[in-house]
Specification:
The protein has helices spanning about 60-65, 70-75, 205-215, 230-245, and strands at about 5, 20-25, 25-40, 40-50, 55-60, 90-95, 95-105, 105-115, 120-130, 130-140, 145-150, 170-175, 180-190, 190-195, 200. By secondary structure, it is an alpha+beta fold. It folds into two domains: about 1-115 and about 175-255, no CATH class; about 120-175, no CATH class. It has a twelve-stranded mixed β-sheet. The chain has a three-stranded mixed β-sheet with strand order 1-14-2, with no helix packed on it. It is globular and about 60 Å long.
Length: about 260
């Protein structure tokens, strides 16, 4: 069994005792997604899911390529310089715990949570990429989600933090169609993965969300700006960015 390492986490400075998470996947899924990140800001992005029914890794395509050392820039120099994904966080589930971690400029942060989706199964079916799928629905994170899953793939997995169905989620979207994921490629994958969380500061989810908000949308991410006019201009830029990203996937993060 070949073993893959998520390199982005192996080269960061030591901040607390190492925590290594390892798992052996049975499937690799590529999802195409359409993301309504803000009122007038919609973007397409590809995501990668690797895992089995109990454990998985999920992230944007560029993050996955960097983390596994497969991006051209990482392979040549060992330094991650690729295009950023719109949903920046990586998600790992292991032993019933969901780990979320992200790298924001000089800040490496993570949190842990227990995520449970209460699904209702329906008799409605559809064919997705030639695969028969059944409908299910759940209320989570302030949205109503519709999923189509396939029992042909027994892995109880899906995009983002959505698991718990009796088969692989092939399509997932909220009823506002702000976030829409569709599986476009399914591959067998038995390479072992080890993820080293060394160097990522552990926070509560509440503190993580507060910290990432400040990093993304306030002057907290900048060194002190003495010039009042420049500080005002910079804040105006941050305010515009805030409007671009005012529709997070988790409208209610603690639901």
């Amino acid at each position: 069994m070949k073993k893959s390492y998520l390199l982005v986490l192996l080269s960061v400075p030591f901040l607390f005792s190492a925590q290594i998470i390892g798992f052996t996947p049975t499937v690799k899924v590529t999802y195409d997604a359409s993301l309504q990140l803000g009122e007038s800001f919609r973007r397409d992005q590809q995501f990668i899911l690797v895992g089995n029914s109990r454990e998985y890794y999920f992230s944007g395509y560029h993050n996955y390529m960097d983390d596994t050392g497969r991006s051209e820039k990482t392979a040549k120099s060992g330094i991650t310089l690729s295009i950023a994904d719109y949903l920046e966080e990586r998600i790992i589930r292991k032993d019933g715990i969901t780990y979320v971690y992200g790298h924001y400029t000089d800040d490496r942060l993570r949190y842990e949570e227990n995520v449970y989706c209460q699904w209702v199964l329906y008799g409605e079916t559809k064919i997705i990429n030639g695969i028969p799928c059944q409908m299910a629905a759940t209320n989570k994170f302030g949205r109503r989600w519709i999923a189509y899953f396939s029992k042909e793939y027994p892995q109880s997995l899906g995009p983002y933090k959505f698991t718990g169905l009796p088969g692989l989620i092939m399509e997932l979207y909220d009823t506002r169609n702000d976030y829409h994921f569709t599986a476009v490629k399914i591959e067998k994958d038995s390479d072992g993965y080890q993820v080293n969380l060394k160097g990522y500061k552990k926070l509560s989810k509440k503190d993580f969300l507060k910290a990432t908000y400040n990093i993304r949308f306030t002057l907290a991410a900048f060194p002190p700006i003495d010039d009042a006019e420049f500080r005002k201009q910079t804040q105006e830029i941050m305010d515009k960015k805030k409007k671009m990203y005012n529709n997070p996937l988790e409208l209610k993060p603690f639901e």
